[in-house]
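OP here, attaching both records as promised.
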Amino acid sequence: MRQGLQLKISQQLTMTPQLQQAIRLLQLSTLDLRQEMIEQLYSNPLLEMDEDIPESPGQDADPTTSESNQVAEAERNSEQNPEYEWNDEIPKDVPVDANWDDVYSPPTTAASSSGGEVNLEQVFQVTESFQGHLEWQLNLTPFSDRDREIASAFIDSIDSSGFIAAELSDITAHIHYDDIEDQLHEDELVAVLHRLQQFDPPGVFARSISECLTIQLNQLSPETQYLQSAKHLVDGFLQDIASVDSARLAKKTGLEINELQGALQLVRGLNPRPGESLSSNDVEYIVPDAYVEKIKGRWRVKLNDSNMPRLRINDSYSSLIKRSDSSDQNQFLKDNLAEARWFLRSIESRNETLMRVAMTIVELQRGFLDHGPVAMKPMVLSDIASKLELHESTISRVTTSKYLATPQGIFELKYFFSSHVSTAGGGECSSTAVCAILKELIGAEQPEKPLSDSKLTSMLEQQGIQVARRTVAKYRESLGIPSSSQRKRF
């Protein structure tokens, strides 16, 4: 093999840090982008808040007015109301025990004096935990020190649903006494457990579903109708309650049909997971990235930038940069200036791409905006990519974790992309539209005679939609709708 040198020209795509930043900003949601902009604002001295942007006419005014506006308002109010005036005469020598409010009392605002509405979004409610609620009841219940220690162990071992899954002896295994006669016994543990089972919410400290329902039934009034029949079902026929054959279940339990239906209705009103009623779940609110509304017969798209900080280049620092200076301070300013410019350019490019994608989706899905999911058209990423001359990966990044607020509700942008099924006329129908039609058909069925998957398939064929029975079953399960046998009512 002979060695040699040769020149070769080639092109390759290099992922520069600026390009990586632009791609990362493209797939951030509105909340994540806001956090990223705040971090850049704190880390880059060449960025500053742009507070000189004029306020839009439809935007609510800032409640914190400027100092000059407050003074002018105070002067106007002092002319109209003599009591509303500033106390300009402040004594030079104020006693030590004097109250500052008695000497200098600025006027109160109209909102505070008129008792305006409280902004509930600024009120934070501290909700106690499930175990804290039980411990509060324990402190109000007369227990001996020995029983209170056992009860505390039971409270620590309870799960989020309100059940005790472990054995009572295992829960209290850490409790030891020096005297053998003072050791804990099973009867003592059960006695403490029965007292705890009277706590709120009803059904807590149960060791099984049957015991949980029995505790709730025992707390009902003895005059409750069908109470004994409900206890009979819970004790021996809990697995058969979901049966759809009422005649067979009545024969098995020895109850009349009317009595069986009343007992079942009473059992269904119980809570099989009492602890979940007190569990604190943090609600995550969705902030839409864009809004769409109909103005003069045309759908308009508007980006949601109400909570976005408006950034700009700091003129004071940028003017200090000297092109011929190579000092460390000047190089530091140059690097941050280039980074700030690229960051603002990337945000602008991200918003422009998101706007184009949202407008194209709205243009193709006008039927959905006018008539709902039934009129959804089949659409894939390549449809938007070819229309905007972008790559499918770019469309995928733009539609990830982005939400669009429509008159039909708030939907993720990926919701508008769906597969298609064939129609009798040779066209295509969106799978989302098929699911919406199935939901309407099942919602209009008779409870005594629910529609089977085969019947739903034939009804869709009558509307020109050709789908297989297994496809109907798949769509039905994706909607969380049980089968026809499970939907049947007595």
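Record two, same layout:
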Amino acid sequence: MCDEHAGPAEVLAAVPRPAEGTAVDPIALEPVDEVRITTLIDNVFDALLTGDDRVTRVSPGQAWETAAQFEGGRTDPGLRAEHGFAALVTVRRGASTTTLLFDTGLSADGMVTNASRMGIDLSDVHGVVLSHGHYDHAGGLAGLAGRRGSRALPMVVHPGAWTRRRLSVGGDEIRELPTLSRRALNGEGFEVVERREPSVLVDGSVLITGEVDRTTEFEHGMPPAHQAWTGSGWEHDALVRDDQALVVNVRDRGLVVLTGCGHAGAVNIVRHAQRLTGVDRLHALLGGLHLGGPFFEPVIPPTVAALIEMAPAMVVPGHCTGWRAQHALAAAMPGAWLPNSSGSTYRIAA
């Protein structure tokens, strides 16, 4: 999958689109006083991680469950980890607080199980944002619907989230990926809002980027094995155009950027957010950066170099970032890098 060479058409599809100068339609993103980002699902759960003034962790002994094989009839199972991502984003402006769910993990019950063990009531969520249509970010929607009952919940998605996709790694090894159904989501009570363009939520204080401009020379997207159905055949889906990020501007701090997989490229995403908002300062980058595996390893050094130049105070790579990129970022930015884990809450305040 990761060692195949792209043909001329595939190379052309991955060529960055020019996006020079200020944004044609700049967004005046209202500053917030505080944002808290809680990782409900990630690939890792580490109960021994410690917190500091930037992050709190779920501690052992927080979530007891019945287990007959132990004296006293109970045990502490900790939290679930799975190949997926879900985060709870709570934004405060003055006395007003709004909570959004950004992605929902892989399994139907992983996210809601972790939320329950952490004492988080997901019925308080005001809306859902999907970073893109891959199933490891949307699987928990079923569990969320089951917990909420019939009350409608708005959900922001890019229209490309419904795209049929598959992995074709050569020979007979072809795996079609689960595809989101808008009809099913409507039936579960989600009010789907499709947007290619940027969306501004929560009284103008939360930006959903929409399609991200591809402006770097090194972030070329997915390998040829990642394919999409066009209606008449399968074609290389390099760009994953439905990939979008969530952005807030914390007063006196700068931008906080949250990604799901970062298929558009971490640097492309940050630059796009900066260009849309006119805010140059990046305070924090959190989420999946999709730098794992041989196809993406050449992208690690220029990504790390660009992030060093941006000088964020906090870098929290998760999910699909990959261990080589994690090591590179931790070594290059030891003061900013933090390990992610299910049950971690990052607080950034003015």
